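Issue 218. Parser rejects a valid record. Input:
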Amino acid sequence: MAEAGLLAASVAILVGTAALLVWRVRNPTWVRDAQLTQNASPVISLLMLALGALLVALAFTFGISLVATRHSILGWAMICLAATGLTHVWVNVWIRRRPLT
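Output the parser choked on:
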């Protein structure tokens, strides 16, 4: 029962994060502030982007290995966590690629 709760919480966090990020990227002021923040310290923001992508890959790999070893609920929870991280990385890349306005 606890594992099902963990999976439900993971899916809820994934959906909530995606909804929050979609709501935020529709706000031009928030996007502009994020661009200015990334331009203020480009090396640090690029390192954080690379670290985020690495953590997403590790969480996804760990989730796949858990699914393969018959710990499917925990594995799917880790895959949801990786998808949540992937949304953060995707928004970061999207903001980085936009021209500074």
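Fixed in the parser; the record now loads. The helical segments are 2-25, 28-40, 42-68, 72-97.
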